[in-house]
Design a protein that fits this description.
Oligomer: single chain
CATH class of one domain: Alpha Beta
Order of helices and strands: EEEHEEHEHHHEHEHEEHHH
Structural class: alpha/beta
Radius of gyration: 18 Å
CATH superfamily of one domain: P-loop containing nucleotide triphosphate hydrolases
CATH topology of one domain: Rossmann fold
Distance between the termini: 46 Å
Number of helices: 10
Length: 243
């Protein structure tokens, strides 16, 4: 199959109390695109991003990676294709050392130990944290944890990076380092974010979610220039476009 297509077809999902989170969502993302999902709190961004590799399953409609629908039967293969970066890096860092965490995914793919060790070294090098390989994750700063979580994801060699609020809780320096790191990746990047300046830096396309529905889908600067639509969706222009 082609791993490089991400598509939602009439995707709907409701919370256990019956509150709708996603309503008839449709989009298609092709190989190499960098796309941001933006919206106010409660718009459905995190719920959507968690459907892309099966952490949540559609209640109606479907999500497809390549030609394969995301189902409980296909989720193992899907997760080899779509790497997920969670909003809280502590959700991905649970081993005694950073290198153990980075090795966890490749080991679970059944790779031989020498290949796992090489992936750990390469991934730590890519994100610039070789010096942290033997550190316990709980002793890392917020920015260091985020970098370590990214190393964990890319060690699995995914074709697609799906990220939930990757700049959350980072100081300005760590945020800039993150943007520079992500800008260098050739993966398809899908980012759910409140950080519209990050979206402006990294994504050529933006999909606006409002109350669980796709309100607008288009080129980033065109979307961010539509002040009336942004206001209706409880959003503002990126700071860099306000001055």
């Amino acid at each position: 199959m082609s791993h490089h297509l991400v598509e939602a077809r009439n995707l709907s999902f409701s919370y256990p109390d019956g509150t709708p989170a996603l309503k008839d969502v449709n989009f298609r993302i092709t190989h190499g695109e960098s796309v941001a999902f933006i919206g106010a709190s409660g718009a459905g961004k995190s719920t959507l991003i968690h459907h892309l590799n099966g952490y949540l399953m559609p209640q109606a409609g479907e999500v497809r990676i390549g030609e394969v629908p995301v189902t409980r039967e296909t989720v193992s293969g899907i997760r080899r294709t779509v790497g997920m970066l969670f909003q809280d890096p502590d959700d991905q860092l649970f081993m005694p050392t950073v290198s153990d965490d980075v090795a966890f995914g490749p080991l679970n793919l059944g790779l031989p130990r020498d290949e796992v060790d090489q992936r750990v070294t390469d991934s730590l090098s890519v994100v610039g944290i070789e010096h942290l390989r033997d550190r316990p994750p709980y002793k890392l700063s917020g920015g260091e944890k985020r970098a370590a979580a990214i190393a964990c994801v890319i060690a699995g060699a995914p074709d697609i990076l799906a990220m939930d609020e990757p700049s959350s809780d980072l100081d300005p320096w760590s945020r800039r380092q993150l943007i520079q790191l992500l800008a260098g990746f050739k993966h398809t990047k899908i980012i759910a974010t409140h950080d519209l300046d990050l979206a402006l830096d990294l994504c050529e396309r933006v999909i606006v979610l409002h109350k669980g529905e796709v309100r607008k889908d288009g080129k980033t600067r065109e979307i961010f220039s539509d002040e009336e639509m942004l206001l209706e969706c409880h959003l503002e222009k990126p700071l860099r476009m306000q001055t």
